[in-house]
Amino acid sequence: MSADRDFAYGAAAGLLGDLFLGDPRRGHPVAVFGRGAGAVERLLWRDHRGWGALHAVVCAGGAAGAAALASCLVRDSRAASVALTAAATWAVVGGTSLGREARAIGGALAAGDVEVARERLPHLCGRDPQALDADGIARAVVESVAENTSDAVVGALVWGALGGVPGLVGFRAVNTLDAMVGHKSAKYRRYGWASARLDDVLGWPGARLTAVLAAAAGDSPRGAVRAWRADAAKHPSPNAGPVEAAFAGALGVRLGGSLSYGGRVEHRPVLNGDGRGVEVADIERAVKLSRRVGLLALGVAAVVSTMRKGGA
């Protein structure tokens, strides 16, 4: 086994670990990082962009630096390097848990139990469940599956291919910080600005690759490309736009519209307006599409890693 295949083997093993093990119920590394980032926030918080930028540097930089140190410690052992990559990949990707939560909500909706679906929705996204009916919940789940396929799987693999274990860990750290402080609430509008902008930058390549792979793996490649080109730029997020539009076109459904976050109502543009409304059965279709996209992303990441190391 040559050194330029270490990442490919390690990432494949990590994805298999995620497939068969999912996320641990206690002590997940991302949750541990989140608690640490929360502690740093309590020390640093000021209603100021500069302090927020320092928070991002300390937390994300510290996580990536620790990963870089670990990589240096195992670089003379190929088996240890592959094992470290596998462990890091398993820790940062979340495709299995994403699918499990989406299917649990879909099962509740299929059984007609909207209240249970509302109770579970916060496990998947930050929308106000009480403001949604069954169709609204199904649409929220499909949109969350699409966006989290990019954030929790493809983006991590892209940065792992480019930067090894530090790339994997650094990307997920930034993505976690964005979820914690990057939203536009009164408290975090300035403090979370740096984390949000950094997440936009790092998420750019993974989002475009996710959209391409959704078009390739979906039921309607032409529909995915058409929706992406026509509607992605209308979305307020530069990265969620291409992903959600491509998923909408690939599945033949209509996404977007009004939604509520923390009591704040947002009126987002419709994506793939020619598609039909989301149905409960589309949740399973979205989960399967997400899984196919993740597997294709692993192949792309393996090729990119081999090319990068081969040219070094």
TrEMBL record:
Membrane-protein topology: Multi-pass membrane protein
Localization annotation: Cell membrane
Highest taxon above the source species: Bacteria
This protein's pathway: Cofactor biosynthesis; adenosylcobalamin biosynthesis
Keywords assigned by UniProt, alphabetized: Cell membrane, Cobalamin biosynthesis, Membrane, Transmembrane, Transmembrane helix
Major place of residence: membrane
Family matches, as InterPro entries: Cobalamin_biosynth_CobD/CbiB (IPR004485)
Alphabetized Pfam families for the sequence: CobD_Cbib
Family: Belongs to the CobD/CbiB family.
Protein purpose: Converts cobyric acid to cobinamide by the addition of aminopropanol on the F carboxylic group.
HAMAP family recorded: CobD_CbiB (MF_00024)
Record-given protein name: Cobalamin biosynthesis protein CobD
Gene (name only): cobD
